[in-house]
Design brief:
Layout lengths: L4 E6 L7 E4 L9 E6 L6 E10 L3 E6 L5 H5 L1
Parallel strand pairs: 1-5
Antiparallel strand pairs: 1-2, 3-4, 4-5
Length: 72
């Protein structure tokens, strides 16, 4: 019996979500895009694949620096 492939999401609207697949994919996606539609402008969050010793594979929210943050 093979072990399931488990991926956690860290940060943003998917924080704490855990996806489980029956087996490891041949080529895991390096990024995952989550689009939030809520009656206003769409909000796009991008998660990047990373690996931690404690949890294994996880997608972490990509932080985009704005010009305002760079000026501070």
């Amino acid at each position: 019996m093979s072990q399931p492939y488990v991926v956690r999401y860290v940060g943003g609207p998917l924080d704490g979500r855990v996806d489980s697949l029956p087996s490891t994919p041949d080529a895991p996606k390096q990024t995952v895009t989550y689009v939030h539609l809520h009656g206003g402008p769409k909000i796009v969050h991008v998660y990047e694949l990373s690996y931690t010793v404690e949890y294994g594979c996880e997608y972490r929210l990509r932080v985009v620096e704005t010009e305002e943050a760079e000026e501070a």
